[in-house]
Amino acid sequence: MKHKAEALKSDEEGAKVLKFILAKYSDQFPRPLTLRSTAKHLGLSVAYLSQLVSGKRRLTHMAANRISQSIKLSDAERDVLMMLAQDTLLGSRENSSAVNDLLKKSGVNFVNQDPEALKVISEWYHIAILEMTFLEIVLSPSVVSKKLSIPLKVAKDAMSRLEKLNLLIKTSKGRYLKNEANTIFAMSNTNAAYSLFTKQMIELALESVDGQDVAHRLINTYTLPIHVDQLPEAKKIVREFARKMLGLCKTDTSDTSLPTPSDVYQLNVQFFSLTTTEGKKEK
Fold this sequence. Notes:
By secondary structure, the chain is mainly alpha-helical. The protein contains twelve helices and four strands. Strand 2 and strand 3 form a beta hairpin.
């Protein structure tokens, strides 16, 4: 019962964001403005929308996509909806300021950036452990150690840290579950923890080039000429691609339209200049 109450509190944070967005763009909805007309415009059932805005259900990727397609949102607002559906909000460098501003305006509570929280952000395996709760395995430090190829002590400490932060919950039957919704880390553009996390994921991608069979990975590189004025459109295309990829992920156990995940994958997107010195940081 404790787990249910804690999950409900987290879902209420997501409800705050959704209600803020719906109120902000209420002029885009048909009149008279009712729950039924709003749900129809968004392509959602009345019951589901009611549960979303009351904090009794969390946002799925499918619902987030439908809302994003039904309302003219900013890039930051679209990112927030998709991140809410993914459960954990790690503010990206690209939209961190706009995302954090939106969350604050929505009245969302942030996880304090104490050393333990920053550890979760900076060490890649914490996020991977949380996503492993959706796999058809019995999660334990030994399983985590084997699956992620990290020392057993590191796995034990990581799971303990996640429990302490209420991100990982152990049921009365001994099963580990990811706290059901929106854990929010406020990130700044210069956050060292996020920088370390990003670098670690890129390093893991490099290791996979020779360490994983091509049947189990996809790594393509493209070198292309582009004008700097086209960068906003290029970034928009990449964000849309990322949202579609998130739509393949099953994080709602009640969703029967997607198969139960068998593995945890990492999607990295890098797009950077090879020729210009403009915008580069001094070392």
